[in-house]
Amino acid sequence: MAPNRQSKNDTPEERRIAKALRELKDGTHKYVSTAATANSVPYGKLWGRFNGRGFARGGHNKILDKAQEDSLIEFIKRCTELGRAPKKKHIRQAANSILRASKYFNKYNFYIRNC
Hints:
The protein is built from five helices and no strands. By secondary structure, the chain is mainly alpha-helical. It has two domains: 9-50, no CATH class; 59-115, no CATH class. α4 (66-81) crosses α5. It is elongated and about 55 Å long.
């Protein structure tokens, strides 16, 4: 069985940020800097969340959409189950194959080159 991956918003740091935001809202802390220090969270991250920035921007270079990424993850899991851990070049080839099979594929889509 595969280990559970922690979602990005369920990390210890995210819980501390949520606590700091609650404390700012209920008046426990008057300033973002004191809330950040008291909860051991980065000031910039807490300030951004306090001023309405979302919890995560997502990664860069998102060539694959969610369904395609899930397919690639299934490929990697299947290879591992068969006792043949995939090499970077095999993962890259599988990702490019998924991109070519996409109904949205056109000459402007970029292939994944090097991992």
